[in-house]
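Notes from hallway chat w/ T.B., transcribed later so I don't forget. T.B. wanted the structure written out for a chain they're using in a teaching module, and asked if we could keep both sequence and structure tokens in one place. Agreed to drop them here.
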Amino acid sequence: MRQSPIDRFSVPFKEFLRDQSTGGALLFLMALVAMVWANSPWKESYHHLWEHTISISVDQWKLERTLHHWINDGLMALFFFLVGLELKREVVRGELSQSRNAILPVAAGIGGMIVPALIFLMFNPSGPAHAGWGIPMATDIAFAMGLMALLGRRVPVALKVFITTLAIADDLGAVLVIAIFYTSDISLINLEIGAGFMIMLLAGNLLGVRNPWYYAVIGIGGMWTAFMLSGIHATVAGVLAAFAIPAVTKLDERTYIDRITVYVREFAALRPNKLPTLTEEQLHMIEKIEDASESAETPLQRLESNLRPLVMFVVMPLFALANAGVELPHDLGSALTGTVTIGVGLGLLLGKPIGILLMCWLLVRMGWARIGPLFTWQHLIGAAFMAGVGFTMSLFVNELAFKDTDLQQEAKLGILLASFVSGGLGYMWLRRQAPIVEANDPQ
């Protein structure tokens, strides 16, 4: 195999991108940059940056939004599209496809949404602040998995699967909350147009269309735009479009192995080419191998794999930079005692672990699920605190729930403080636990 000078940099860079802790670290870094920038002498430039407008126009038709809106309504649709792909994969062949495996983390996820919302409503039973009850409901999977990755073998694989499934259930709940409770006046005409594009996506799936461009053009160019104009938040379109992506292979494993074996033998039988370029016959054979490999993949998993780096290293860091800039008030004490700050903060810090552990205890008590032997109650306590890191989704819901800048700032303060403390407590708790030796671990 020929080695190029660039390989010395590209191979470590690819490994860097695959590391789950990298995305969480970058997200934290961008949030820190936003915080420092928003409280620096250059804070006006921070706020002014996101107010720039970008427009798309064709003749008399024009779609104009601020940069802040394009990030939150546009780029974050890719985040929700990835969430939808993960949801469908889990439902089709993952943990959510088997009720016995899914019942505990899904129930824990529901408990981890209900209790934080109730705690928030205890402090904000009425008035404008009441609308923020959905803010402390979601778990930030990037941060949680990033922190777990730093702990290495102290976090059992089964616990990572549990928290991932819980976060996916959380994400689905958050999407439903956004769709039902955080939508503006609905334009039925645009909603019907969006539904028409959704039917086209489903028809492509049924007809066996596997080209990602078909789904990209109709899903983003058509369905996403229609949903944005309909009043239903455009990120819902991302999730719905993801469920239309085919999740089956064109070739089964046995057929794929047989074909690849034949193609490799035919390639080996061709006259050797000692030139830097390939012959037409060799190129043709490689194309057959590529076509067979593509047919052995599901479009859903291929899209998920290709989108994850873009979402983790571009979309979410940009979102954090645009939304985490909390300008700390002169009277920080008064801000910390605000009902929104307390409701969001305690909802994430206490509501999440209480809701998760309470639901797990109830299911185990009733005999519907069990804890162990792959992870213990002690591990579950640490994971429950990590689930209190609600950064990305909580900030997103905050933008939808409040139009008042002061309420938004209070909620952001509660989100950032609670996420930092929850993540730190979960990390320190799990760090104290002894590693569990998995059955397939080398002795």
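Follow-up for T.B.: Confidence is low (pLDDT under 50) at residues 439-443. Might be a good example for the class.
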